[in-house]
Amino acid sequence: MELDPADRLRLATELIDSVEGPEDPEWVEAWTVEIQRRTAEADARAARGEPRGSTWEEVRERILQRLSR
Fold first, then answer.
1. For each of the chain's 69 residues, which pLDDT tens digit applies?
2. Neighbouring C-beta atoms of residue 1, cutoff 10 Å
3. By residue range, what is the domain housing residue 21?
4. How many domains, in total, are found in the chain?
């Protein structure tokens, strides 16, 4: 926890990569398509002058509400 955030992220990535095994091309393609879709939606909202997405506070509140059910 004493590492700076960038180093912690790099370490976490290396740890995950060490146990995941080879990439699944279909999985990579599916996530690429999904990321592109979400980015296009956010760009469209921004072009209309709307927020690109939810704030962390909004997302956190939704998560906490779901967990309390």
1. 899 999 999 999 999 989 977 889 999 999 999 999 999 999 999 999 999 999 999 999 999 999 999
2. 3
3. 5-68
4. 1
